Amino acid sequence: MASAATASRPVAVTGSVPLPSFSGTEGAYMLPHHQQEIDRLTRQHRFMNSTTGGQLLITPNIKEKKELRVLDCGAADGTWLRDLPRQLPDHKLELHGVDIGSTLFPPPSADVDLREHDIRRPFPASWGWQSSFDVIHQRLLIWGIKSVEWPVVIKNLVEGLKPGGYIQLVEAEWISHDKPADPATRPQLHKQALMQEWSTAGFGMDIHIAYKLEGLLKDAGLEDVTTVQFDHGYGALAKAEDQKNASAELWVECFRTLDEKIPGTF
């Protein structure tokens, strides 16, 4: 299940081959940052499109404005940004993205501006980004932001938002806390549920952050805060036929990486 919380600023393939090393993000982001991870993120993007009907933005102002200045935080190689014109073909879009590591950025493009930046810090004043974006999007940084850092991150994002602009935060929970796996009938899923709890808590992160985004946005002084949930069925439960095997591989790849970073096993 993924939750997308939007808010307006008030106007007044598993295997035994070792994975490559990180590219400058070790210690800041639990998942890796190398070319294989970019490939996984691209496949993950296609999977999420299959479960959201291809919607990348659900903010109200995409219907109200035909010109949008958009920022994607945690942009990786810019896949999400480059796909946005598909959803909004009649809009004039100015696309910007930031990521904690720039090693895997594609060559510079006139269509997408990508910059290296840690969103736990304010945007540099020299960039002129204060109060400049109509939409700020951030997706799946559940393993990149510690629990105590979320208010700071949101504050930094708000500073880049125009009055009347929207922030869209998208986070997921792989095993729902509302429907816990029965250890007797679904022991492996139960173990994975324990692992997702342990893996995040052990690094100061919150696996349940998706359910807390709305409150965090309100605490930051934002208005018109709403939450929209999408069910992401993995494996046999995937909505699209071509995503049944693909999504199962994504699941395994993600948890395999965590297993390599956490001492001990179940």
Automatic annotation (TrEMBL):
Q: What is this protein called?
A: Predicted protein
Q: Which InterPro entries match?
A: SAM-dependent_MTases_sf
Pfam families per the record? Answer: Methyltransf_23
Native organism is: Hypocrea jecorina (strain QM6a) (Trichoderma reesei)
